[in-house]
Amino acid sequence: MKKLDYLKWDEYFMGIALLSTQRSKDPSTNVGACIVSVDNRILSVGYNGMPTGCSDDEYPWEREGSDLETKYIYVCHAELNAILNYTGNGMKGSKLYVTLFPCNECAKAIIQTGIKEVIYMDDKYADTDPVIASKRMFTSAGVKYRQYNKLNKDVVLTL
């Protein structure tokens, strides 16, 4: 008889996105993303961090201050990093698993690459203009989005 308590696809891919958050050096918000093909193959992963070649120690991680003194204009979001890390021929019809609902800038990149579904864990900025705009664009472009339904199951990784 086969094992019955194996990870379902949503659990598996959200788990990869969650594991990716551990690469982020952001002291306040860690986000991970995993892009999956229509046949459930991982295409790419990403996390929020500074652009390649920009030292994590040289740029600010603060949340408040003038624009140039905060992380917001420097950090690449997890979704964008996952898109940029992809080296294949196309993402048409793929799914994006992400730990935080995408902002409007990431939503544009998601739509442009042909991703057709976004599965997100947290929507803590739901009432902000960037997220409202994301949802509006996703709806117009036919990109489905749904919140990840966590099963009451913990997966423990040991190193």
Layout of helices and strands, plus pairs?
Layout: H1 9-21, E1 32-36, E2 42-47, H2 78-85, E3 95-100, H3 104-113, E4 117-122, H4 129-141, E5 144-147
Parallel strand pairs: 3-4, 4-5
Antiparallel strand pairs: 1-2, 1-3
Fold and architecture overview:
With 159 residues, this protein is of the alpha/beta class. It is 28% helix and 17% strand. It is built from 4 helices and 5 strands, in the order αββαβαβαβ. The chain has helices spanning 9-21, 78-85, 104-113, 129-141, and strands at 32-36, 42-47, 95-100, 117-122, 144-147. It has a 5-stranded mixed sheet with strand order 2-1-3-4-5, sandwiched between helices. Helix 3 (104-113) links the parallel strand 3 (95-100) and strand 4. Helix 3 (104-113) runs parallel beside helix 4 (129-141). The protein is globular. The mean pLDDT is 94.
